[in-house]
Amino acid sequence: MVSKRFVLKRLLMLIPVLFGVATVVFAILHLSPGDPAVVIAGERASQEFVNQVRSDLGLDDPLWQQYIRFLGEVVTFDFGQSYQVNRGTPVSQILTDRLPITIELALLGQFAGLLFGLPLGILSAVKQDTWTDHLTRIGALSGISVPIYWSGPLLILLFAQFLGLLPTSGRIGSEYFVEPVTGLILVDTLLAGNIAAFQSAAIHLLLPVVVLGIYQMALLSRMMRSSMVEVLRQDYMRTARAKGQGSKITVMKHGLRNAFIPVITVIGIQFGSLLGGAVLTETVFEINGIGTLLVDAINRSDYPVVQGTVLVFAVLYTLVNLGVDLTYSVLDPRIEQ
Amino acid sequence: MSTETQTGTVDRSIAERLRASPFLSQLLSNRLAITGIVIIVAIVLVAIYARLTYDLSELMATQFGTNPAESPPSSEYLFGTDGQARNIFPRVMYGAWYAVLYGTVTVIASTFLGVSLGIVAAYYGDLTDNVIMRTMDVLLSFPSLLLALALVTIFPEELGLWRAVGALTLVYTPRFARVVRGAALKVLEDEYTDATKALGATDPRLLVRHVLPNCLAPITVQSTLNYGLAIIDIAALSFLGFGASPGEPTWGMMLSNGVEFGLFSGAWWWSFFPGLLLALTVLGFNLLGDGMRDALDPRMRETVD
């Protein structure tokens, strides 16, 4: 078991990091050359009106006052109102609407990556230096070298345009409307008991998940292979075989558990690339997650949305890594020291 | 004058070190790494050739009247033509120059910054170490592409693709700082650093002449792996609309335009070839980086990020 002290310590260590993250976000937005007051007032607004907007927003206050106010907003999860999306919608509202969409995509991509990546990595390690191994490794290396924004459109072209098997973009057929409960479309369609809608959503998600999953699969199979190769070399593996256990049982019983430990850390570290991949995937497949939200917000100088989105991404990433660290210490209690 | 001799000696000692260590011989016996080197050399040659042969303004200008628009690959237009009737083949070749140039600047800048910060943190320890490394930790708490997206906005738009270079340099720096700090701490424990200090070496001399050369192996591996990442990320930023200006023959921009305007009207070649070259280049750097990591320490296989 993880000791309470360890969990508490890790949670306390989170505070300065999140404080730093908020500071970086604040700094980035204040270093940007654009003027939010002009964005809100519009390009053709009079100087007087722009000044009015600026003082309404408190943008002419001293920087330290703005900073303190910003930290207060972050703590209360109130990022103000969007300049653009239905002008005046609270950013927190937009984020809660859009976040589940990205999370659903990322989780499915991660799941697909695990489902295929781990067995491939194990296979590669057990058959080390054979053709199976070489092919798997080259495949994995190609998988991480091919950009999502190239493989995605090509797969759309093949499966949607030429073969007509799958839809080109979106999350669900336009004929379906499902009341958002969790925001996860696969769950919501099931909750509504609408099987046809569920199928439509599943078909729409298939290609994005494949594209995102290929990258994760490639990464994970590489990690799993190296970790497994390392474990197979250990003395306890030789002992287990010497005791007369069949090599398959040895691998399954003693090898896997130990080989998984470093892979779990890697899943945490790679969660960042998963989120980056999700942004690109959303753009390619025109999915309205927070990835496309961020790209649009930057293009429209919608600073409150940029602020909120980047913060949410960073917090998500940090929390996942905290979770991974804690899992890790459950599997390998030595880590607490 | 004195700096010249100094770098000369450093170079020689690196060469000797490489010969003495099994690193190079092991790397050169790795067929995948050799494949990577061949790909990289080929791309660099294409880049230089394109830079010397083609006129950039001509590649950027629309060619209506001269060429047919969206014409499929043929013997005349090897990779076809795009929506502005531009011949895609020379543009893709020129894209190699962009990728190599901007990728190199990104990697050199982030290596330089990261190595300096890492070594300084390791050597001075205490407060300096804490301030530098906690800042790096904060930067590492952002998913890298998203941090790059946010950072791109702080650079004025006129900088074009250099915005992407600036943003990605800041994103990659912490990785180098972390790797180098770890390596430098190990070197600083060794007795010869004490000996050098006892002989009266100044801090900069100790760090540049003695600590840095002994950290070169992990730095090189990290740089190589980051090279592929830099090229793919610069293209990703261009694809998302941050970086190259319209018409510029970068792979990311061609891909973005090709997908947006050509793919579903049937002009697949418009985005296919830039993407192919991009993937091939990145694969080259990943093959080489992998081989280097294996040669450096077989037990380290695939654990450095």
Explained architecture:
The complex is a heterodimer of chains A (337) and B (305). The model of chain A has no long low-confidence stretch (mean pLDDT 83). With 337 residues, chain A is mainly α. In chain A, 76% of the residues lie in helices and 0% in strands. Chain A starts with a helix and ends in a 6-residue tail after the last helix. Chain A has 13 helices and no strands. The longest helix of chain A has 39 residues, at 247-285. Chain B is mainly alpha-helical and 305 residues long. In chain B, 74% of the residues lie in helices and 0% in strands. Chain B has helices at residues 2-20, 23-28, 31-53, 56-60, 88-124, 126-140, 144-152, 161-189, 191-198, 203-214, 216-239, 251-262, 269-296. In chain B, helix 5 packs parallel to helix 8 (161-189). Chain B is built from 13 helices and no strands. Chains A and B meet through helix 1, helix 6, helix 7, helix 9 and helix 11 of A and helix 6, helix 7, helix 11, helix 12 and helix 13 of B.
* Topology of chain B as a string of helices (H) and strands (E): HHHHHHHHHHHHH
Proportion of strand residues of chain A:
under 5%
Q: Describe the largest sheet of chain B.
A: none
Q: SS-based structural class of chain B?
A: mainly alpha
Mean pLDDT of chain B: 83
What is the straight-line distance between the termini of chain A? 14 Å
Gyration radius of chain B, rounded: 22 Å
Quaternary organization: heterodimer
Structural class of chain A: mainly alpha
Percent helix among the residues of chain A? over 70%
Q: Can you count the helices of chain B?
A: 13
Count of extended strands of chain B:
0
